[in-house]
């Protein structure tokens, strides 16, 4: 029988702002386990953009910049604590970290005790499982609910997925947010066999996942990223790798793949390239978006939208069952992890600092 301590080490976010808002607590209470919950001993927890954006208050509509290195380190001083989470206000202190891999050590009274001892991943979208299609009730693990930058984390048992894999905890902690976001983008845009998909920011966690997941469904990924990362992105399966911001995107596509257009843009970047993304879409092309790293405020020519009959979709809350599909992809070896670096719990601020430099390919992971 596992002895569960009353306190644990955890990194807590105490308010919106810079890296100084992340505090290591040596004796933080171990999460309570409700009747339908399970307690996980965290083996590893991956970083994602939501961690940064929530900390700095980027989701507030008054913020018009992208997630820059400077803004990500220092935050936006003008925002109050009630202003900056994507669902509105957030309660502090909060343990961030959505991408948990670990082992179940305790369960609530309504949960099958056979789950204890299982190695698991956590479906990051917490929902009312009695009414799972009601997205108004959805919350995010590590945002509206304490997450995995700690030695222990609790989650509803319905969100916990046992996994059978030879991958390490750190490798498994790269999948949840990046790969489920990428898969959701492809689902929303109905990407299928032979579709040419343009992937801005292809070296990041979501971008590198998109390259693999496009290939998995028979689509053709075309990547945009910095020159220093091009070889690594090509090795993931990109049909071609173009510069991050070509002066003439259509001409660059023509040279690289023999056509100046794509069927789909799967975007987490936004910013100044947005207008060019629309111009290279085919008639009835699909633009799908799950982020705006380079900036949320864009120049939008409505003529490109309506004269070409384009289809726009946002991709945030996933459908019930999609996370179970992802677990299947992992177990069958259809996708692979990309661990760029690992950090101990006390170095979460350093991990976020490296994340913001955008010099890595793949995901950065915290190992408690």
Give me the secondary-structure topology.
Blueprint: E1 7-13, E2 22-29, E3 37-46, H1 49-56, H2 69-74, E4 99-107, E5 119-122, E6 125-126, E7 139-140, E8 152-156, E9 160-162, H3 169-172, H4 176-188, E10 196-199, H5 205-216, E11 220-224, H6 230-236, E12 240-242, H7 249-257, E13 262-267, H8 274-279, E14 281-289, H9 302-306, E15 311-314, H10 322-331, E16 339-344, H11 348-357, E17 363-367
Parallel strand pairs: 10-11, 10-13, 11-12, 13-14, 14-15, 16-17
Antiparallel strand pairs: 1-2, 3-4, 3-8, 3-17, 4-5, 5-9, 6-7
Question: Looking at this structure, what is the CATH superfamily of the largest domain?
Answer: Medium-chain alcohol dehydrogenases, catalytic domain
The count of strands amounts to: 17
Write down the CATH topology of the largest domain: Quinone Oxidoreductase, Chain A, domain 1
Structural class: alpha/beta
Radius of gyration, in Å, reads 20 Å
Domain tally: 2
Shape: globular
Supply the CATH class of the largest domain. Alpha Beta
Main β-sheet description = 7 strands, mixed
Percentage of β-strand residues: 25-35%
**Helical residue percent band:** 10-25%
Query: What CATH architecture of the largest domain would you give?
Result: Alpha-Beta Complex
């Amino acid at each position: 029988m596992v002895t569960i301590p009353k306190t644990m080490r955890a990194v807590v976010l105490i308010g919106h702002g810079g890296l100084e808002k992340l505090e290591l607590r040596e004796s933080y209470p171990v999460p309570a386990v409700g009747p339908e919950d399970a307690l996980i001993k965290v083996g590893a927890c991956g970083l994602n953009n939501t961690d940064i954006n929530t900390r700095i208050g980027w989701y507030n509509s008054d913020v018009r910049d992208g997630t820059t290195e400077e803004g990500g380190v220092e935050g936006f001083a003008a925002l109050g604590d009630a202003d900056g989470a994507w669902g509105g206000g957030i309660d502090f202190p909060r343990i961030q970290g959505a991408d948990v891999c670990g082992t179940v050590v305790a369960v609530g009274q309504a949960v099958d005790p056979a789950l204890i001892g299982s190695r698991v991943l956590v479906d990051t979208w917490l929902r009312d499982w009695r009414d799972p299609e009601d997205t108004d009730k959805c919350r995010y693990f590590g945002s509206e609910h304490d997450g995995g930058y700690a030695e222990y984390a609790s989650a509803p048992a319905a969100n916990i997925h046992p996994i059978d894999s030879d991958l390490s905890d750190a490798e498994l902690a790269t999948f949840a947010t990046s790969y489920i976001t990428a898969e959701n983008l492809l689902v929303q845009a109905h990407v299928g066999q032979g579709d040419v998909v343009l992937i801005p920011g292809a070296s990041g966690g979501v971008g590198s996942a998109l390259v693999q997941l496009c290939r998995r469904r028979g689509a053709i990924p075309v990547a945009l990223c910095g020159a220093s990362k091009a070889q690594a992105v090509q090795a993931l399966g990109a049909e071609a790798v173009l510069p991050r911001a070509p002066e003439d995107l259509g001409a660059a596509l023509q040279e690289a793949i023999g056509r100046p257009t794509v069927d789909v843009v799967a975007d987490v970047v936004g910013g100044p390239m947005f207008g060019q993304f629309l111009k290279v879409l085919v008639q009835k092309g699909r633009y799908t978006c799950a982020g705006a790293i380079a900036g949320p405020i864009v120049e939008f020519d409505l003529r490109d939208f309506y004269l070409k009959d384009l289809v726009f979709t946002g991709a945030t809350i996933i459908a019930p069952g999609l996370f179970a599909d992802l677990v299947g992809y992992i177990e069958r070896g259809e996708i692979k992890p990309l661990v760029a670096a690992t950090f101990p719990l006390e170095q979460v601020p350093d991990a976020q600092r490296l994340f913001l430099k955008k010099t890595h390919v793949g995901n950065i992971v915290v190992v408690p």
